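Lecture 7 notes: from sequence to structure.
We start with the chain below.
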Amino acid sequence: MRTTLRFTPAWLVAGLFVLAGCGDKSPKPVSAKETRTPESDVRVETESTPAPTEPAASVAPMSYETADSAFREHRYEDAVRGFTAYTANRPTNAWGFYMLGLSSWRAGDLTGAEAALRQALTIDATHVKSYLNLGRVLIEAGQPDSAIAYLDTVLRIDDSLGEAYRLIGRAHEVKGERDEAVTAYHEALVLDSTDVWSMNNLGLTLIHQGSFDEALRPLARAVELVPEVATFQNNLGIALEQTGHFTLAAEAFRAALAADSGFTKAAVNLERVQSLKEDPNIPPVDLKSLAQEFVRQIGAWSFAGE
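Predicted structure tokens for the same chain:
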């Protein structure tokens, strides 16, 4: 059930949420005195790409290794050139096209990434990593319906992959279908109760819905598990601020900046919240207790699904 906001500061009534699109597009700095809602962080899917399985021994190892080295060193344009040459010589190797797709995506070429990942799936229709990353590319390209179709195929292959549910949640969020997004994140967390990115994404969706009290639980748990991720700290700060807990919100924004000193959104949020006076009548919040409440919530979801 969606919770009700207990505290509505005047600046929240005056403003609307100003959220970036997919990716990390830092907003221009704003004065703490401006009537503007805080900037939550939409970097909901930035975990590192798993290392690919080694190619078969029969392929040219140096060619693959050279391209793979460029990818791991974040020289993505070099990696694109390397894997383009590799796939020209090994046109039936799905892993080559998979890595070409990842390299193209990281280089900013969504069209090339989509084409390479589709080719990987033409070669191997069970290549789960290609389905998952094609889903990511399509979400970023503004094609959430196509992403969901491919991710549903993943679940027909293996319905235990929480990552697929997490990405389905992101696709529904892009479509504005937030109840469906929440349901998908619940499914992901039932399958993996330590999936911190699903916790973050769930918290962000609840923030979008205005369910700030409810958002505190998954975000508190994400921060408890991985406190060094700036994204999690920033979004927890948003939920704390929106529920009137300005002191704790400032602490979360400072933690975000400690993790990433160049995190503009957290700096803007910290500047604003420091100018706000906390209502002494607001009941205190215990983040550790909220995190454990969320653990129990996941257990209840698991039990209900049995």
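Points to note: The chain has 15 helices and no strands. The two ends are 20 Å apart (CA to CA).
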